[in-house]
Amino acid sequence: MPSWVQQGYSEYAKRMPREMEPNLVELPLANRSKNTRKQTVKDAEAEQILAAIENLPGQKCIIALDVLGKGLSTEKLSQKMASWQMEGVNPCLIIGGPDGLTQKVLQRAHEKWSLSGLTLPHPFVRVLLMEQLYRAWTILQNHPYHK
Description:
Layout: H1 3-15, H2 38-55, E1 60-71, H3 74-87, E2 90-94, H4 103-108, E3 111-114, H5 122-140
Parallel strand pairs: 1-2, 1-3
């Protein structure tokens, strides 16, 4: 990832409280070439994603980010965060590769979210999502950041 992505993500991640500390799991992109079929690449990435999910501890709520997913306000996200805390659930947010997620991954998800009707570059999504998680947490804390 470009340094601006790492810096942006890290800035918001360090602001999160210890009990909501994010755990970023980066998976390498599948090998691509001119002759590689897009579906082959997506299938390889899906296997990595599903294996990574299984290795995460605790009760999980798997959320796939997908252009066809449900839109969510920051206020609604803060309500979901409060619920996760109360229920002891670890949200697992999946950002797919450049070709998107397979149906196998989307079917494994408990929820599908869309961050925007716009097409967003995948590196930017990581920063945007972390900022929104921080913003949602500030709402729960009645912190003025959200204003």
